[in-house]
């Protein structure tokens, strides 16, 4: 019989998120015999304390029979995975990531008059966004504070929605919400530690 593992022996934590990287290309996990390639497209500016990754409680089905106080048969269905975070930016790169390149209209100009006269030339320029439902897929990498550990979420599927963040004095942001589409065979979460 093996000796009981102590708390110290079981301590292997991931904590202190310092970055959230996004890679559009899903990581190929069909074969883990060769090194995986992580090539993030963006280091997203995520609002502090908005990253949420959690699996919901399972649904428990209780099957009872007459004369027994407990379950005759108990079955379970896994809870839904929730992935969410807030990105306070209107960067065209992030808008294209969230809604697709076709949804972002660049080189928009406007003439604004506050005194009732018609301005001679456009005095504002910027970007337009078509709010269309788009599914964002790919790989998200959480980097710890000392940058020596990665928590990789694969097969992630998200959507984005625009918000005005009242907690931050009216900052425009995008809320990303979604889940993980698992095939039940390949890993959905990777825990990687930098080699010394």
Features:
196 residues, 12 strands, mainly beta, single chain, 43% strand, 8-stranded antiparallel sheet, two-stranded antiparallel ribbon, elongated
Task: List the SSEs and their pairings.
Layout: H1 7-10, E1 17-23, E2 42-44, E3 52-55, E4 59-63, E5 73-77, E6 81-87, H2 92-99, E7 104-110, E8 124-129, E9 136-144, E10 149-165, E11 171-180, E12 189-193
Structure write-up:
This protein is elongated. The mean pLDDT is 92. Strand 10 (149-165) and strand 11 (171-180) form a beta hairpin. It starts with 6 loop residues before the first helix and ends with a strand. The chain has 196 residues and is mainly beta. The protein has a domain at 16-29 and 38-53 and 75-106 and 126-196. The protein is 6% helix and 43% strand. The chain contains 2 helices and 12 strands, in the order H-E-E-E-E-E-E-H-E-E-E-E-E-E. The strands form 3 sheets. Strands 1, 2, 3, 6, 9, 10, 11 and 12 form an 8-stranded antiparallel sheet that branches. A two-stranded antiparallel sheet has the order 4-5. It has a two-stranded antiparallel sheet with strand order 7-8.
């Amino acid at each position: 019989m093996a000796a009981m593992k102590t708390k110290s022996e079981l301590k292997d934590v991931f904590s202190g998120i310092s970055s959230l990287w996004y890679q559009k290309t899903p990581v190929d996990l069909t074969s883990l015999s060769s090194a995986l390639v992580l090539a993030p497209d963006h280091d997203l500016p995520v609002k502090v304390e908005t990253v949420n990754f959690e699996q919901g409680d399972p649904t428990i089905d209780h099957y009872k029979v007459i004369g027994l106080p407990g379950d005759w048969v108990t079955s379970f269905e896994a809870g839904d995975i929730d992935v969410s975070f807030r990105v306070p930016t209107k960067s065209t790169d992030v808008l294209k990531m969230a809604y697709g390149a076709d949804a972002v209209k660049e080189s928009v100009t406007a003439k604004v008059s506050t005194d009732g006269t018609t301005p001679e030339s456009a005095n504002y320029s910027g970007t337009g966004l078509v709010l269309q439902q788009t599914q964002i897929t790919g790989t998200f990498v959480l980097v710890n504070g000392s940058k020596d550990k990665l928590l990789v979420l694969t097969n992630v599927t998200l959507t984005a929605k625009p918000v005005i963040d009242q907690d931050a004095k009216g900052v425009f942001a995008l809320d990303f919400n979604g889940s993980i589409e698992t095939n039940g065979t390949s890993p959905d979460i990777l825990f990687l530690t930098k080699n010394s």
